[in-house]
Fold Glycosyltransferase.
Amino acid sequence: MAISRTHHAFLLPSPGMGHLIPVLELAKRLVTHKIIPKLTLFYTTLQNSSSSKPETLVLQSAIKENLFDLIQLPPLDLTTKVAPHASSEDKIAVLMHELPLLFVSTISTMNLNPTIIITDFFLCQLLPRLQNLNLPMFAFVPTNAWLLALGLHTPTLDKQIQGEYVNEIEPISIPGCKPIHPHDMFEMLKDRTHRLYHEFIGACEGVALANGIFVNTFHELEPKTLEALGSGGISKVPVYPVGPIVREPSPSPSPSSDEGKRREIVEWLNKQEEESVVYISFGSGYTMSCEEIKEMSLGLELSGNKFVWFVRPPVTKASHDHYLTAGERSGTGSGVVSNVEKSNLFPDEFHRIQSNGIVITDWAPQLDILKHPSIGGFVSHCGWNSVMESVACGVPIIGLPIFADQMMNATMLAEEVGNAIRVEVSPSTNMVQREKLAKAIRKIMDKDDKQGCVMRERAKELKLSAERAWSHHGSSYFALSKILL
Ligand code: UDP
């Protein structure tokens, strides 16, 4: 493709590792694949957020590569807009409202001349306000096509269905797509009286004004849904599958993790048999309770498997939130916890199983772990980035979805894609029964289990498809190039 010398894209991600990581990777690909010659990324963090430290580290390392300019905006302070102990839903709703305002006020005062604007989905309420710039605008949806289809179909569902979607008896249908079990419903659509529901619809209406939508999936993963979305289907604007947008393995160590720890993990994995270890992580935001850690430890013990487990010290208060600040997490209010204090927070069952694996309590070098040949399965909350990373590394998933889009993701993988098994998680306590966890781990890890064998094979097949999608003439590379059409 001929590069235009004049194009300059503005890329606007929203805060949080789950959004920042794929947007940074998208930026890198646009530049390294010579699709866009100049790119400026605008970024803000949430004031006092637990993920601002890894976010800053990831940003710093991206900047060192010198591929694009970064304009760091002041942290977004939501403290005057939302009560400190408000629910995650309240906080996200305020974030979705405030972010576009921050970006509009900043961008309009700058003397820069973008030719293209790409915004994260959470920021799509910005698009109507930017229409007067008369520029091509693209939405980046860092999740899958099925969730995008649900989002774009929500204004129709809003008219068709009277009560709450979660109270429907029958699965909720979306034309041409797999129907959605009401109990799997996307978090933002669970309560139609909540402000978040309306912010979500606002973002979906914004998406409809874009010139195109980039979605982090690829053809072989969701062929039916992508067809249903496409030309004249659910989406009125072109949908381009550009996944898997996963950080490319960097020759240097991951900046977001401690190098000593990373080496220790890799050296330990080097000593294990091929595909014999399970990796466990619930993403960048989730903190377990002591009871959850205890039951999970017992499940791991029962499975008899070796493991690498990324687990934060448990929350110390009764009601726990997915988006605790560092201070709230530690229960100290200060956010500073010594290693001894950290260790004391874990239950005895957890300490007992430690000799059978490696525990990481800070930040895991997830891709280094998933890429390692000793990893045979991933016990995951099914956050979409983790799913894409697992797919790109050919690792089958033991899905324990808890929140947000994770239930839909786990159902899709288990029922449609075929590279995962879903384990029941209690919706009220987020607990998984030790026997069920152990059984699912054994199924995936046991070389003689027929069903497990099919899932492992499927995971390997998907790894190859993912590589093809991002090869020079692959479908995802080609789709991303459409930005200049
Ligand atoms: N991640 C990581 N180390 C950790 C925790 C998370 O590298 O210790 C990365 C992970 O590789 C993924 C992202 O953070 O890229 C988490 O995104 P995901 O969508 O899986 O879950 P979320 O954090 O949004 O719940």
Remarks:
- The longest strand covers residues 38-43.
